[in-house]
Amino acid sequence: MPAGRVHQDLEQIWLFAGCTRAELRRIGRAFQEVEVPAGTLLVEEGQPGLLFFVVVAGRASVVRGRRTVASLGPGDSFGELSLLDHQPRAASVTSESEMTLLVLRQHQFQKVLRDTPSMARRLLATLAGRLRTADRLAFD
Fold first, then answer.
1. Which domain holds residue 89?
2. Which spans in 31-116 are helix H?
3. What pLDDT, in 10s, does the model give residues 37-77?
4. Within a domain: residue 111?
5. Whole-model pTM?
6. Which of 57, 37, 49 is nearest to 104 (CA)?
7. In the chain, how many domains are there?
8. Which of 70, 50, 49 is nearest to 59 (CA)?
9. Could you give the 3-state DSSP secondary structure of residue 59?
């Protein structure tokens, strides 16, 4: 996949919203493109998460408990919190069709952050902004 496409996909993701173009290129190089067939369990609710996914093509369903809570398609992402912690997954995600995904492993993400401290500060600021918004919505 061309590097420009990865960059475009990443700048749409809330976690990377505050990153510079150079930082987006750097993190983009850490992703792997993966093809998966329909019916593939991508993440399992309750299991530790070590991967982050960006949907390039195809569809997936998100199930929490026994209830489908979302459908994912091109441009959507999931698993971003697993880049930051080792907590269990909040939902299961299964491919509904053949899919092309960009996948980032937690250890690759940590390496990029170690090599680019300015990016770590921007990610923290973005995360803090998202938490403030969630806090306002919960208490307003």
1. 3-106+117-132
2. 106-115
3. 999 999 999 999 899 999 999 999 999 999 999 999 998 98
4. no
5. 0.83
6. 49
7. 1
8. 70
9. coil
